[in-house]
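Today's session is about reading a structure prediction critically. Students often jump straight to the picture, but the first step is always the sequence itself: look for stretches that repeat, for charged clusters, for runs of hydrophobic residues. Only then move on to the predicted structure, which in these notes is written as discrete structure tokens rather than atom positions. Here is the chain we will use throughout the hour.
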Amino acid sequence: MKRYQNLLMMIAVVLLVALPLWMVQKPAPGPDGKDVEIFLGADDQAKNVIGNIAPGYRPWFKPLMEPPSGEIGSLLFALQASLGAGFLGYWYGSAATTARIRREQGKQAQC
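Below is the predicted structure for this chain, in token form.
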């Protein structure tokens, strides 16, 4: 039962972070008419360079969900990274504990 409680808690945390972000409206353009972006990442810089090199380039596909702002995109990336790190840390800790228990059982069997 406790295992399912932990899983439900993790799903609830992800939903509490993600759902409000999907419901946020894009901010109004700035006074110069450009979209307001505080954080620009390497993806945006690469897109600008590609636009300078090949002005007629068209992307192969469109994203399924466009975050309302760069901050939300950064938050989603950080959430993805933290979930991946948590999963890898859990797996590594579980594997190390399993190996330690097997070693201890092997020593007890030899005695």
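Discussion point for the tutorial: The radius of gyration is 23 Å.
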